[in-house]
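Deliverable D2.4 — example input (structure tokens):
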């Protein structure tokens, strides 16, 4: 079966952020015990109550995921409930929705849509495509509590188009959706993505400059969406692990826009190969081992 370069690029970009990351510099406290929460700054296992105490000092909390692992979504739901119990004005930003769908998310938060209506109106299986049931508990809890739900992402076809054709070949309407600024200067981020690019060759995607631009656009628009919707409220950000890995994806880009204190939580099947600076906290879960690049 032949696959178009655009479709292949879309699939590859999704795979980049579902756990396919180069791993090195081992974490201070190796552990494969499911349920362990590790404070990376101290290299110590902590309780959920201690984690919540730390999170009380942050305005933006990033809860990562490998999109296909139910255990990671269970962690996100537990965090949502605990944070919303303390702060009923909590807002939730989600990578899974593109910004043009914000009016639909507002209807969902107001309790005016059924589950099937949400999926149809957001074109879930044309855009995000991962099993919606994995996110249902989280989304139903947002609806039940009438929390503000924020669409973080750019229209999903745009990064894939950039990766195979460059920003210059987008249509005027597509260019209008780009972030107001794009930072290409982080060398650690660039080298991280260069390894991914060189390890996964796809027909039609032969320019690292275009590939890197696609990643930066993707992450800058999510950072911009966080900044535009944060205000004085606390926000829980639901996002793929790849976007918070070592913080140089979305967290630091959002911080430059807001100066708001943040913390990152990275669910992983174990910590034995994760770099010390992967995240502020690593939450060990069950499931398949994390994907690794050679």
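Example output (designed residues):
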């Amino acid at each position: 079966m032949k696959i178009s370069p655009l479709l292949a690029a879309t699939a590859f970009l999704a795979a980049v952020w579902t756990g396919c990351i180069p791993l090195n510099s081992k974490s201070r406290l190796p552990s494969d015990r499911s349920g362990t929460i590790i404070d990376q700054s101290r290299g110590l296992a902590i309780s959920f109550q201690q984690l919540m105490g730390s999170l009380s000092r942050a305005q933006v909390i990033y809860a990562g995921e490998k999109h296909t692992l139910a255990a990671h979504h269970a962690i996100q739901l537990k965090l949502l409930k605990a944070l919303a119990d303390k702060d009923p004005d909590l807002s939730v930003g989600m990578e899974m929705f593109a910004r043009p769908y914000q009016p639909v998310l507002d209807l969902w938060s107001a309790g005016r849509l059924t589950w099937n209506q949400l999926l149809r109106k957001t074109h879930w299986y044309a855009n995000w495509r991962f099993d919606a049931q994995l996110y249902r508990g989280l989304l139903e809890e947002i609806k039940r509590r009438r929390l503000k739900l924020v669409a973080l992402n750019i229209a999903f076809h745009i990064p894939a188009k950039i990766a195979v054709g460059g920003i210059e070949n987008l249509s005027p309407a597509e260019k209008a959706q780009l972030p107001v600024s794009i930072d290409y200067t982080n060398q650690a981020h660039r080298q991280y993505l260069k390894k991914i690019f060189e390890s996964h060759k796809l027909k039609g995607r032969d320019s690292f400059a275009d590939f890197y631009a696609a990643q930066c656009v993707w992450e800058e628009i999510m950072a911009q969406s966080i900044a535009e919707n944060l205000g004085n409220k606390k926000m829980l950000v639901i996002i793929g692990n790849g976007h918070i890995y070592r913080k140089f994806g979305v967290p630091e880009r959002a911080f430059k826009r807001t100066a708001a204190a943040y913390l990152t939580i990275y669910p992983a099947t174990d910590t034995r190969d994760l770099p010390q600076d992967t995240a502020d906290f690593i939450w060990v879960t069950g499931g398949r081992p994390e994907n690794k690049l050679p």
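The chain has one domain: 5-284.
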